[in-house]
Amino acid sequence: MKTHEYQAREALARYGIPFxxxxxxxxxxxxxxxxxxxxxxxxxxxxxxxxxxxxxGGVKLAGSPAEAAEWTRAMLGSPLKGRVVRKVxxxxxxxxxxxxxxxxxxxxxxxxxxxxxxxxxxxxxEEVSRSSPEAIVKVAADPLMGLADYQTxxxxxxVGLAGDQAREFGTIAKALFRAFVECxxxxxxxxxxxLTEEGDVIALDSKxxxxxxxxxxxxxxxxxxxxxxxxxxxxxxxxxxxxYVKLDGNVGCLVNGAGLAMATxxxxxxxxxxxxxxxxxxxxxxxxxxxxxxxxxLRDANVRAVLINIVGGITRCDVVAQALVDLIREGALAVPxxxxxxxxxxxxxxxxxxGTAVALATTMAEAAQIAVALAAGSAARRPAGAGRTGPGExxx
Amino acid sequence: MSIxxxxxxxxxxxxxxxxxxxxxxxxxxxxxxxxVAGTAPGRGGREVEGVPVFDSVREAVDATGATAxxxxxxxxxxxxxxxxxxxxxxxxxxxxxxxxxxxxxxKVCAHVRAKGSRLLGPNCPxxxxxxxxxxxxxxxxxxxxxxxxxxxxxxxxxxEIAGQLTALGLGQSTCVGIGGDPIAGTSxxxxxxxxxxDPSTQAVALIGEIGxxxxxxxxxxxxxxxxxxxxAFIAGKTAPPDRRMGHAGAIVSAGRGTAAEKIAALxxxxxxxxxxxxxxxxxxxxxx
Lengths: 396, 288
Description:
The complex is a heterodimer of chains A (396) and B (288). By secondary structure, chain A is α+β, with helices and mostly antiparallel strands. In chain A, 35% of the residues lie in helices and 25% in strands.
């Protein structure tokens, strides 16, 4: 789960990580009042779930409270990197001499938390890792022992800090690591971590991503979820326990298992089509979930055909087939469907579908070819509920 | 021959009284797996399908000599179940549970390693040595005994490949699902090492997917250490960047972990990479 900068900042501040004073504003008047209280120059930063805000015009320097209000007015409600700005962070502008990067990530290969630092801060760290990977130093914290003091000293030295500043950096690195672990993060970054003209080390921007699997034990962090940043169809899918990702093609897919779902998308592409989505109904899906999954797929107006690929393990093919038959009976299937059912109760499933409008395939390759042909031959259609904007409408 | 499990493997099912645990106990018993015990704290003394239920892994091991466990414990408690198994000498711990916080898995992996046990998963389908033993949730009828080793991050994709192999008369030595989480107890390299040492495995199908670098590390290992031919398939060629594709670990992040990178690394290591599952199976048929 992604969070906003201001939320990450509040979380990290609780671990003693220093930030310049600042507050969130939802109106130009609030921004003006915050700027007046802070005095001097302030930075106005759009709060959206996307990086690269600066380049896109989402970060502005204001010399006066009036200017702060002006920038805030310009940003609020306006689109930025495909999102709509609803809040801005108004923070005191500081005079900076150097900028660093400090971050903690999951180190999948080392099965540990990797803590990384770079003397090249304030820029896109992914770009740095591509163009000059040697500019990033990384230590692996032991999963049971945690981040050791010597490792923070190594990081400080590597980015060129010494003395009090190295100690301040070390304290911040330890706090960051503690926050990463205690908040169940999968990513926690301070970028940039800045050295001020006064010689203080201070965090200017932060990014926090929480492990979805840990939200059950992080209720206060789970409450930070901003559903306005999420795709409505993906949110609906999540609500019913389905993994759905909207793509740009016209062949809808309904598959059990994430790997098989990806392979099904790849097969559609291999045979000249384009998948409209990734959809994994998970293991042991019931009729309700299958109906909901098809509903989500069909609400995408681009979808011209649907491929159902089930390799039954926990998932029973007859349950999928029966759900499909029920949907046909309700007239809910607006596009041609091809189903490929193998594994648990596949024979029963195929029997249930025999004589219906659903085309049956025996292999994934055959199903993909049929689906691509069906999509090509199927007329453009209006989505269910076209003309209305319901909560489930795909807003893209 | 086979790897990790065979006809003599004695299995304890952790959370045997749960919905999934009891269902798959029936399936495993039907396949001939020696399910000798189950655990369910507070429910010791019962039986599930004739299998004695114990309050703890220690009691189960003491009474039955179980050497492998399969974990059907819900995510918030699964890490503890794995630790309990490792602390009581279970050599192979197979964790089916999906949704374990990754920091729990990280600690558990370190602990299990320190105890000298092996963790398979979490978020995996388990493993099967066809005709002898299955410890997991895969549909058994898609498998047949033979000489192809299968190792996969994805469950259903492994069933798919095994099913196609079986249909062509190509049986499997052992099929191992290593799981779809970003951090897993057993890697491709761990399983490839075992297949390389197993005289009954004549060819290996490696089924990878986007995210992480496990496939790239496997490629380097294959080039340096393997005589047994390996054929691969990588899922997620059409997956968009920065989107999680179902599995917690299936995400291209910061431009890394793409299917293209993995395919290139494997091809560079001399591994044939099928563009489709069918092509992978044909490549296996050509060498097996």
